[in-house]
Amino acid sequence: MDIQLLISKRKEKKISQSQLAKLCGFTRQAYNNYENGSRRLSVDKAQTIADVLEFDWTLLFPKRKNILAHTPPQSQQQSQAGSGE
After folding, report:
1. Beta strand segments in 2-73, E
2. Distance (Å, rounded) from C-alpha 34 to C-alpha 3?
3. What are the structural domain ranges in the chain?
């Protein structure tokens, strides 16, 4: 989750953690835990926060790079290993 985006969007609106928590129906402690990363933000909660702060909730979950995208298929790995013998 992009915690820095969450914090910056809240600060752009000049809303405190307590105010945002109340607007979203969360406790201040729960919201604080989202911002400090000690609690994971569900899609449902992300949508609620983004609606209040007026931004696209999907921005909170940036796509991860697929580390397997650069790994050759199994058959290519085997043929490369066999060519060195």
Report:
1. none
2. 8
3. 3-83
The third-level CATH classification (topology) of the domain covering 3-83 is: 434 Repressor (Amino-terminal Domain) (1.10.260)
Write the secondary structure of the chain as one string of H (helix), E (strand) and C (coil). Answer: CCHHHHHHHHHHCCCCHHHHHHHHCCCHHHHHHHHHCCCCCCHHHHHHHHHHHCCCHHHHCCCCCCHHHHCCCHHHHHHHHHHCC
The upper half-sphere exposure of residue 17, i.e. CA atoms within 13 Å in the direction of its Cβ, equals 12
Q: Give tens-digit pLDDT for 16-74.
A: 999 999 999 999 999 999 999 999 999 999 999 999 999 999 999 988 655 455 555 56
